[in-house]
Design a protein that fits this description.
The structure is a homodimer of 234-residue chains.
Chain A: E1 3-7, H1 22-28, E2 34-38, H2 48-60, E3 65-68, H3 75-80, E4 85-87, H4 92-101, H5 105-112, E5 118-121, H6 123-126, E6 155-157, H7 174-181, E7 189-191, E8 197-201, E9 204-208, E10 213-216, E11 223-225
Parallel strand pairs in A: 1-5, 2-3, 2-4, 4-5, 6-7
Antiparallel strand pairs in A: 1-8, 7-10, 8-9, 10-11
């Protein structure tokens, strides 16, 4: 039993933090009075405290109290009793390293399989996949493993970007990078554009939001999946 | 004693493979008849054989034979006897994993300190730094460590890209990513634009090519270093 919203980004261009997801989050966290926030990804290197207070500012509008996981003496116990969890974006390597160091990979995964409402944005979405191997982030710290929660049977490339036909830059496109991944791995990858999210209910994965997603499977040519469609790769 | 060319990219927009570096490489490898090529980074997932033959095509024009390191039964011995080494670009995680698995980190580092002419492009440049932690690549495989050759006292961000003021994309800019790195590490980072390279002679590091470089130090604001200047950070 799973109940997740996995968003490509917390913020769309021109919008404010989580604003575009507000109607969905109002429903998703309807029964939640106190939300546990995992601030480990520290975007721009900001502190756990500041990141948590940024999240609180948005959730004030839904009348939900936000408590940072870093503030608990026993984060495992905190997760066991959580009504809902939100993992924010930032650096995925840092997030995953902290999840391992605090030994909360398994406890968090357990709660995701127990119908607890979960929200991930960017790095927080990435960790719901089989591994963090399709992150766009820089390896600023060395995590003990790239394996993540496996709450969905695929990986997610957040902030998915189409190749720019006018670019003179010679670095690899996102599509090239994901194809390289498939030379060494079979896990399907969902290229999730900013503004899109995946709604997970039990074992059903539905693409939501304004965009199609680009689906990469190891043995197929990449293709577009229209929004409001079920993701059936595994 | 070091003698290295560390290039941001193998190919500049509109040019052919290594063409823009031909005059430098002609001088750099003047005494080399047989060049050892390290094809482990496998750009686009191509085979070691195909990648080596691509390199050979260019070096034909300099009358240099190219032999792939993968083709030796004993790669350590091959490096010990190498007249010169070229490590090509591709995926840095894959390259570093292969360097560790073949136990050639230390032997290669030794040769770089013995005045052997070395060329790196992109991932092959990245590994000359203290660590691979400023790569732009996707973590498609898990290397046993992020530590690299330390032939220069800084890290290099190849294919350095300036922020695009017109972009509507919400993913982190290169500058933001490097600043995040400096929340957790003190190693200086050279943002090396495509077409630029670092010429290393003994312990002198000179920026060459058409562009300035962007220098990131943990405790300073980033700044531009003009071309043909010495890099003095450490």
């Amino acid at each position: 039993m799973k109940n997740l919203i996995l968003a490509s980004t917390s913020t769309v261009h021109g919008g404010s933090y989580l604003e575009y997801l507000k109607p969905q989050l109002d429903l998703h966290f309807k029964a939640v009075e106190r939300l546990i926030f995992i601030p480990y990804a520290r975007p721009g290197g900001i502190s756990h405290e500041l990141y948590t207070s940024n999240a609180q500012k948005f959730f004030n509008s839904l009348d939900i109290e936000v408590v940072g996981l870093h503030s608990f003496k026993d984060p495992i116990k905190a997760l066991e009793h959580a009504e809902g969890v939100f993992t924010g974006g930032g650096n995925t390597f840092l997030l995953v390293k902290q999840l391992y160091e605090n030994k909360i990979i398994a406890p968090l995964r357990d709660r995701l399989y127990q119908d607890m409402p979960y929200l991930g944005t960017s790095a927080g979405t990435n960790i719901a996949g089989v591994s963090m191997q399709n992150t766009n982030d820089m390896p600023i710290v060395y995590p003990p493993s790239f394996k993540t929660l496996g709450a969905v049977p695929f990986n997610i490339n957040a902030h998915y970007l189409d190749p720019d036909p006018n670019s003179k830059h010679m670095g690899e496109t996102r599509e090239t990078r994901i194809k390289e991944f498939h030379h060494f791995n079979n896990v399907p990858v969902i290229g999730l554009r900013e503004g899109s999210w995946i709604e997970v209910k039990q074992r059903t994965y539905i693409l939501r939001g304004p965009h199609s997603a680009r689906i990469f499977e190891a043995t197929k040519l990449p293709y577009e999946l229209p929004t409001d469609s079920e993701i059936t790769v595994s």
